[in-house]
């Protein structure tokens, strides 16, 4: 099977398919995502989420902020399972969503753990990481504030954020308080969307 042009094993495909089935089942009773996206979960969520790991397809330590329905955190954890190394720390303060995420990781064998805590408290629990991810969580300025504690500990840290068509305005606004280097990766799934890769983060105001 190919996912965004990258081949994955049959076992990984089965894990992802099981995750989609779990997601659709749980989403009927708790708000995991917009109802309009449930029927096309593979393209709207799985393929979209996989783009982040495909930018760094190696066994590293990730922190996924506001993991919610598991995108991209659970998808990254499943793809790491194929490598047999690396780990994802999924941060989700909503206990119902955290319960779903625990079930998803347990049943798919994804390489990750759930922390049912506020994002602001996460750096004291997960002290170090290589990469941070977030999807449909907050504006760029707030995301950078969340990432700062890890960036101060790891000068090589990189953050990956899915953003929609208004991303340029968010970048301009964020530059008012932050300095950072940026790579824009055009989405292979959503027209006018991008994955922003941010590094060398520094507070300037």
Automatic annotation (TrEMBL):
InterPro entries on file: rRNA_ssu_MeTfrase_G (IPR003682), SAM-dependent_MTases_sf (IPR029063)
EC number, UniProt record: 2.1.1.170
Family: Belongs to the methyltransferase superfamily. RNA methyltransferase RsmG family.
Top-rank taxon, per record: Bacteria
A GO CC term assigned to this protein in UniProt: cytosol
Listed PANTHER family: S-ADENOSYL-L-METHIONINE-DEPENDENT METHYLTRANSFERASES SUPERFAMILY PROTEIN (PTHR31760)
Protein name (database record): Ribosomal RNA small subunit methyltransferase G
Keywords, comma-separated and alphabetical: Cytoplasm, Methyltransferase, rRNA processing, S-adenosyl-L-methionine, Transferase
Keyword Transferase applies: yes
Pfam families linked to this entry: GidB
Enzyme class: transferase
One of the record's GO molecular function terms: rRNA (guanine-N7-)-methyltransferase activity
Major localization class: cytoplasm
Location of the protein in the cell: Cytoplasm
High-level lineage: Bacteria, Pseudomonadati, Pseudomonadota, Alphaproteobacteria, Hyphomicrobiales
Binding site for S-adenosyl-L-methionine: 66, 71, 119-120, 135
Biological role: Specifically methylates the N7 position of guanine in position 527 of 16S rRNA.
Catalytic activity: guanosine(527) in 16S rRNA + S-adenosyl-L-methionine = N(7)-methylguanosine(527) in 16S rRNA + S-adenosyl-L-homocysteine
């Amino acid at each position: 099977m190919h996912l965004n042009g990258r081949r994955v094993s049959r076992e990984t495909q089965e894990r992802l398919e099981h995750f989609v089935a779990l997601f659709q089942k749980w989403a009927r009773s708790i708000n995991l995502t917009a109802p309009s996206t449930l029927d096309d979960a593979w393209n709207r969520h799985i393929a979209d989420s996989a783009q982040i790991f495909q930018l760094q397809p190696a066994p590293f330590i990730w922190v996924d902020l506001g993991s919610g329905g598991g995108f991209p955190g659970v998808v990254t954890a499943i793809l790491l399972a194929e490598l047999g190394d690396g780990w994802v720390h999924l941060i989700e303060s909503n206990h119902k969503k955290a319960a779903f995420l625990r079930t998803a990781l347990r049943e798919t064998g994804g390489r990750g753990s759930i922390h049912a805590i506020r994002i602001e408290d996460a750096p004291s629990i997960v002290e170090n990481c290589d990469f941070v991810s977030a999807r449909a969580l907050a504006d760029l300025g707030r995301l950078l504030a969340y990432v700062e504690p890890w960036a101060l500990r790891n000068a090589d840290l990189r953050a990956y954020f899915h953003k929609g068509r208004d991303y340029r305005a968010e970048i301009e606004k964020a530059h008012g308080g932050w300095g950072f280097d940026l790579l824009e990766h055009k989405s292979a799934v959503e027209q006018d969307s991008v994955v922003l890769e941010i590094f060398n983060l520094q507070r300037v105001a």
